[in-house]
Amino acid sequence: MWIGTNAACFKKSKRKLTGLDQDEALLARAKKRVPEAAFLQQNMIDFKTDQRFDAILSPFNTLYCLSSPQERLRFFSSVKNHLADDGIFVFDVWNASHAEENFDTHDTDAHFLTTIDVEDQSWHVYEQHLWSLPNHSLEARYRFVPASKDYVPLSQSIVHHYVSAEWLKENLQQQGFNVRFFGDFNQGSFDEDSEHCIAICQL
Length: 203
Known about the structure:
- The chain has five helices and ten strands; from the N terminus they run H-E-H-E-E-H-E-H-E-E-E-E-H-E-E.
- It is of the alpha+beta class.
- The strands form three sheets. The chain has a four-stranded mixed β-sheet.
- Strand 7 and strand 8 (154-161) form a beta hairpin.
- It is globular.
């Protein structure tokens, strides 16, 4: 959820917002950032609530954090069970075909990514990629270096398990979704050379 960033983007929409994360500390920060939203502390794979939603969003390659096809299928099922009639499910991921062909899998150096501000403290973020092409996985290692000497650097690793657009379309359709893929966030056409895969799914 990245401390409520997703929910914060929709504050002006005047829609009822619900965020989901299993990390208690991140949820606490998100609640401070977007107090008008509701938040559920659950795993995205098998989340359950009495609510049904007009739209369910899973941005920033979240799908690739699931470690197996079985987990992805369970997540799709949970989404299906919580969509309202005519609701939409939207997610974005790297296009796996483009990633395998164009990313430098031999570059294992840490590179500066961005600077973020959390509770009046600035952090410089560095990212390192470790690829395993046979396993279709990428370990992204992040190092957070504080601008102030009052804090110590932090590290976190996220392992992405990427899948093809063909796999996504086949399995989403088996769940009953009508699927459209776009190659960018302006609804440009999608093909194997697209860097991104943006999916809009509707029952």
